[in-house]
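Q: Protein A?
A:
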Amino acid sequence: MNKYESIIIIGQNVEEDGIKALISRFTDLINTEGKVSNVNELGMKKLAYEIGKNKEGYYIEILFEAKPELITELERNYRITDEIVKFIVVRKDEK
């Protein structure tokens, strides 16, 4: 299994309960075939540029281990979730 880091930005209009539900949904998805090691809620930050009428976004960092096949499914779920404005998944090099 490889180590990954995922940053997701949730739109400014999502309530706190909605954010917690999204975090739970994605960590459960990762834990089906991988292992979440840490979830950091970085909070609401101003975006560098407006994305779909959002000037701010709630940033979340998820550190996890998974097989490469899981990343495709995770990104697909990110894309079909309307509350997510932007996301990125990066493989962490082991040093």
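Q: Protein B?
A:
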Amino acid sequence: MSELKKKTAHEPLFHLSKRAAIHPAKALAIRLAAIVLGLVVCGLVAFVLIDKLNQNPGKIDDFYYCFIKGSFTSKRKIWKFLKNLAILQCISLAVTPAFRMRFWNIGAEGQTLMGVLGAIAVAFYLGGQIPEWLLLVLMLFAALVCSAIWAVIPALFKAKWNTNETLFTLMMNYVASFVVSYFLIIWVPSGSSSLGKLKFGKLPSFGHDYLVIILIVLALTIFLYVYLKYSKQGYEISVVGESVRTAQYSGINVKKVIIRTMIVSGLLCGLTGYLIGAGLDQSVTTGSVGGQGFTAIMVSWLANFNPLVMLVSSGLIALLNQGASQISQDFNVSGAMPDVIVGIILFFIIGCEFFINYQIIFRKKSHGAKEGVK
């Protein structure tokens, strides 16, 4: 009896235990609660900061209204929201096949940037010299090839020498920026590093400039969902992601799957680069992707690598970004405020995944038993 008491006395008050499973409705409720709590904390923190920086800060309800105002109070803002959602969704789709395979591709930023560069290079050298339809086709081909090459390089090193794909793909982002800077120096002898908007190589618009982009990304989302869930290649990706040894035992050529999957990711990044270059900017800079290659990692992860659910997570990020920008504009505060606001909210969203995957087990004082807090 004394030994049992001594063991109980030294037992921790609580410990963490990984959940075997959680009901989807409960997981959704936890995520929604995290979003609400994040908005509350973000509103209080931001309002205090705004109150100190602004003589006429307004009311706290104005702060929350800005999130809606930034995206849905005019047709122009709605189209902008859908455009931002589509571009972020497309990059998120690009990283998803690799992530499902547990190949941590952090290089979507550079791969997409190389796609933009490939498309704009064709427009720069051939624009006005060949028919517009042929120019657009060649731009697409160049974008796909450039991004696929940029993606397959770390895949080859991983398959051949088992290099660390996280560091490799991350460093490739910086190399891509330097490559773009090099071409800008060649194309812009004045040294301004600003190419300007090209006259040729613009995607046609049907009703609205963004409509084609939105429809392409929507079709791509459905295609990738079917590809990952129902195709043989999608099954092989999942098996390799679960266990490399199991995949090898099943007769799956793991090296081939790694290279093929990264080619798919590269092609999707290339398509995104084409949409940015030919559909939006008609130019290229080192900031053409705008950091969305890194944001896409979080979008894909929050959706548990499900392309359809990514529409929701992409929309949430787009809504937060536009709402935060509207707050910065309406309250006349620093341009860094949107990053602070979005960062606080995303902290809660990411943190809630802990409570979805783990539970806290408390010790019962009476009998030394353990009780799960779920």
